[in-house]
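Data card: per-record layout.
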Amino acid sequence: MKRLVFVVSALAALTSCVGNHNLVIGEVSYEGEYEEIRISPVTEGCPEYVIVENPQVRIEDFPKDDDGFYVIFNGNERMQGWRGYGKDHIPSKWIVEDGCLKFNGTGDPDAEGGDLIFEHQFGNFILELEWKVAEGGNSGIFYLAREVNAAGRDGVERYQPIFMSSPEYQVLDNANHPDAKLGVNGNRQSASLYDMIPADPQIQNPYGEWNKARIMVCDGKVVHSQNGVDVVEYQLWSPEWSELLQASKFSEKGWPLAYELLNYCGGEACEGYIGIQDHEDDVWFRNIRIKIL
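The structure for this 293-residue chain is written out next.
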């Protein structure tokens, strides 16, 4: 097991004027240890895997707005507190454009991609943000994610995709992306719990227009909201949750590692990272804020 005590400071303060959050996201610090935790799985057919714990940003270093939310992105050019999943830097396809956090899928094809995470693990919280996609766009919002290493068929350990350990709030152009017609009863459309529970009612604004997402996690109860309306509700770490997984692409027989990670998502502490997805399409996020419950 490797351990490394690590405290660093980020770059200089910047001011943003996006939305109603005219707040400074300035110098931030990190605390904690690097640790690799090897797990012996309980799911049949699941390989041994490693949970990688990295130093976390001090959430108290981020400004609070009048509603008691920590503002974790409001157009700050340096994207303090964010990095690539399984990386120690921000992949170059993630840029700040017009005060928005953008995945530049149509930009330089040689630029580095990958999912993005905020470097603090949350348990009970309310996450709010706005998003829009280009025509035919696809992305997602992850929560309770962990960084996980496991050996592939070649025996080499590597980071597994973030969606294997994290429930996903789907971000999609329902009218033009083929995934909207896959799955069951629309459970791959926007705001759905991806491949498990469809958003109902489905009230997405079309591509090129902003949508407001809200995710609440409190003692295992999860609620997805879209444009001010609650559209998904379920209970983590329950028989219902296991049944949802078994009926999805993440079933015990179909994908044992994903089933294990998702069935026990958040680990013993029941907490994990917020993440946003690189699905190779242009997608924009803005006014990202989180309240700890």
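Known properties of this structure: The chain has one domain: 65-292. The helical segments are 239-246, 256-263.

See the next section for split statistics.
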